[in-house]
Amino acid sequence: MTDLLTITGLRRDFGSLRAVDGFDLTLAEGDRHALIGCNGAGKSTVLHMVAGAVRPTGGRIAFAGTDVTRKPAHRRSRLGIARTFQTPAPLDSFTCLENLTLAARPHDATSRWRPSRRRAALAERATAQLAALNLADRADTPASALSHGQRRLLEIAMALMAGPRLLLLDEPAAGLTDADMARLLECLGSLPAELTVLLVEHHQDVVTAIADTVTVLHNGRTLTSGTPAEIAADPQVAEVYLGTAA
Amino acid sequence: MTRLLLDTRVWTALAVAALAALPFAVDAYTLSSLSGIISLGLLAVSVAVLTGTAGLPSLGQVAPYAFGMYTTVVLIRAGVTEAPVLLLASGAAAAVFCAVIGPAVVRTRGVVFLMLTLAVGELTAQAAQQWKAVSGGTDGSGRLDPTVPFWGLEPLVDEPAVYWYCLAVAVVVTALAGWAARSTPGSLVRGVRDNEARMRADGHRVGAYLLGVFVFAGMIAGIGGSLLVTSQRMVFPSDVSFSISALVLMAVVIGGAASLGGALVGAGAVILLRDWTAAYLPGQGPLVLGALFIAAVYLMPGGLAGVLERIGLRRRKEAT
After folding, report:
1. Could you report the per-residue pLDDT of B58-89, keeping only the tens digit for each?
2. Residue B64 structural domain
3. Which residues form the ABC transporter domain (chain A) (predicted)?
4. How many domains does chain B divide into?
5. Is residue B279 pLDDT above 50, yes or no?
6. Which fold has domain A3-240?
7. Rounded to an integer, what distance in angstroms lies between the CA atom of residue B265 and that of residue B244?
């Protein structure tokens, strides 16, 4: 297995606040890794820096052998890094199908010079992706009319349209109902095995269901890492969480 | 839905036909004011493209408007009066100007974008005033030769002829802008308006898309500037002042930012109201316009186009 993502000494300051303070992580192809920690531990900031939405103050991020530390978000997307946002962020004035075809456009290899064939191919892939996430009946519904849970699934579908090698999920279970949660877990369970997933999450159930390994962040540093079971049994982690999650 | 869509087209066609028939109903003075309004209407369409499609309300579209206007002035003085040359050159000059300043401007958003475009507009207006060789300063350009619609045709001297020319150009340009907004590049720009971070995360080159729409909107403004020269045959630096920018942004808000036709109608409404208050309530114009602006923002969030949509004359976005 080759390393897909290598993060070394990652730092980020917001004014005098050091949000991330020397974070290291290496992920191989197919890894399912979760970042957990209290609010303000720096989890989302790490995710933003890997996606290219926030510039690191220091450190290095390498993806598939390329140094992407200074590359803008759209370039990283084209290299194979896809993400979802903490608040689901589909394009509200477009239908679900259009959301997916627009998301796929920068990654589409079919000829630019045959627009009608290109559109048809994109629509076909988008329809299949919607069906895979149980959203087929919503193809022509504007994204603004979807429920919170459906918007979350739609955004995951958009991220998958890029055919990514690394998927970053920022609290995918936040605000979901139990029924939505079941659909989310089903969807994440059916992701291709070679896809690497880096997940920020509070819900212990989701972490246990998806992640092979877990890193606990505390004050911008790695507190410990291990399998979900090891982390759940770690007294240090329980202390950090003040008994709320572990 | 198809029937409703058809309705929109029918209504648009009726409106254009009514406007085209106006020269048979109104006097020459009104017609010449209307020609000037159409020119500002294209400026409003250009602002609506930025505001509605790209989500970038601008106070600086008078800058490319001025570039188009003075390109036409310079060409007419040099003896080039054929409309196709004037329109293409004016649109191109404005587009080039926008391509030069665009990369810096489209990095900003919201209030910063508004202030930066305001500064660009003001600088252009000042430059126009100072560069007397081109603008004639506050004395204006002086009387210019009439525009010739095409090689071999009669020059546009009569008010109806000038009016029909301006109307035809405005209808074609607005239709093109509407088509562009629905095309694939137009969808990409609307996607950026909806959610820029999502578009970046999907691999879209957001900066390039916004630069593209900025240049396109500038070209529309430049063509509008050319129309003003044809309709007034004498232009002044005050034709590109801040009050015009503010008036046009207001026209777009009143007309409904998401609708290009609405922008045209809004420009007509605002300028007719301004001229009407000047005649009947002298000195109270800004007050009336200000009150109208506040009323429009509170009572018609979607503008005139939004009102039409609510009473069912326009296709609803939500309806599927």
Report:
1. 999 999 999 999 999 999 999 999 999 999 99
2. 28-240
3. 5-244
4. 1
5. yes
6. Rossmann fold (3.40.50)
7. 16
